[in-house]
Each structure stands twice: as C-alpha cells, then as structure tokens.
Amino acid sequence: MPAEAWIGSIESGIIFALMALGVYLTFRILDVPDLTVDGSFTTGGALAATMIAAGYNPLISTAAALVAGGIAGLITGLLHTKGKINALLAGILSMIALYSINLRIMGKANVPLLGEETLFSQITAFFSGGFGIMLTMAVFVLAVKLITDWFLHTEIGLALRATGDNERMIRSFSTNTDSTKIIGLSLSNALVALSGALMAQYQGFSDVNMGIGMIVIGLASVIIGETLFGHSTIFRATLAVVLGAIVYRVIIAIALRVEWLEASDMKLITAVIVVIALTWPKLWGAWKEKRARAALQQQSSQDNTAVRGDHHA
Fold this sequence. Notes:
Blueprint: H1 3-30, H2 37-53, H3 58-81, H4 87-106, E1 110-112, H5 119-126, H6 132-152, H7 155-165, H8 167-172, H9 177-203, E2 205-207, H10 214-229, H11 234-255, H12 266-312
Antiparallel strand pairs: 1-2
C-alpha cells in the first residue's frame, strides 16, 4: 500500500476516534445503544460546511457543530428519560428527524468546500511537511481523550459510570439517573458531531448520507480497541478506543486493496470485522480453556502413572 494511503487511513482514523469516544460513552459507560450517532455525525458536518461556505470562521463553525451535536443528544435523552421512550427507539426517532434537519441546514444534499478555508487548509499552510494534519489531530484527540478521562473521574462522571453499571442501585442513593443519562447522551453526540465537522473539512464536502453506518463503525472501533489493547482502566479503555479507530481504518484500507473487493463492499467489510471482533475473544478464550483442561488431565494422568509405578516398585 502506498505511503499516502497509509497516512490517509491513519488521519481519517484519528478523526473517527472522536466519534468512537462518543460511542464509547453511551455503549460502554451508559450501556445505552444510541442510534442518534448516524444523524448527529451528519449534523456536525452539515452545519460546519454550511457555515464555512457562508464565510464563517472554520473554528467557530466547528464549535457550532459541537454544540448542535450536544443538542441532538439532549433531545434523545429527553425522549428517553422524560418521554419514557425506549432508548433504542428514541435514538432511531432522533436519527430520522435529523435527516430532514440536516437537509434543511445544507439546503441541498451536498455542500462542497473546495476553495474554502477550513481548519485543515490552515494546518496544511502552517506546516510545510506532510505529517502536519496527522500530528495536529493526534495532539487534539489525545487532549480530548485526557479531558474525557478526567471527566469520568469527577462526581458527575462517577455517577454516569454507576448509572450504566447498576441504575437501580445508584437511584437508591438519591442520584437523578435521568440527568446523568441526558448528560452522557449530550456529551456523546457532541463528540460525534465534532468528528463529523472535522471529517467534512478533511474530505472537502458534507453529504446528507455521510453519517449512515457510523454507529457500526464506532462499535467496531470500540470492540477492536478493547480486544487488542484491553480496557482494565478508564485511561486504558479510552486509549484503546482511539487506537481501535485507527486500526479499523487501516484494516478497511488494506481490505479495499484486495482486487475482488470494491468500495461498495465497505459496509460488508465493516460488518465482518465487527463479527470477528465480537466472536474472536470468546472463541480464543474457549480454546485456551480447553487447552488448559487437556494439559491438566494429561498432568493428572502422568501423576497417576508415576504413583502406580512407585507402588509396583
């Protein structure tokens, strides 16, 4: 694979890591399957691209996308907690509504950013080398990861983690679990929208369909990261999510280099990767357990043989 393809895969993986961190907050911390992600990712891209095309500063446009994603998560949280709608259904309803809202924001299905000043054009102009975007985004994502770690160790963050672990128990301590869920969903979708805003600027356009399948990509990043790098602590788990997003993009890039695979097969490849990541740890664990049991039986058999030998002697 050419060096440009490696660099491109790693750069897009780093940008997707923000989205994966958002998915981690809902999927692992809150234990809520949030499908709002497919809509809020596009919302971030749509709002940032539209504002940049209208002449707004790229930084302000990106910040506005972050806030819009937070509002989308807030609405999903209110539907689930106050409207008593199942979390999965609340996410689906928000996702469907956001499709129309995103079209309203852009005014059309696609907003190009060719010739517009974006965060990435500014980074490219500042750095003369070819690794400016990668290094800048790596530092930024690492900072977001550390802020997320810090937040999850604050009083609100601990309540968030406890809500996902055992909602009934934490409610018995007079903690308002509705508030923790709303906060978690808002933060998650804010990160997802931020990722969408950066991806739109990175690829040079925003499309109304750019968010389709993002929840699967986010889950794949989380599962691959946890499988390869572990998740014994919050620091290690969030780092694994970031690295998982990068590994996922590299795997996709390598898979698409296979001659008989086409770009349209990307969703199928994603599904296969997720299935492998989900089943491999269990199959590997079962194989190791079976091997350990066989070794134990063999050792026991050898000990019995030795005892009989001593007895006959």
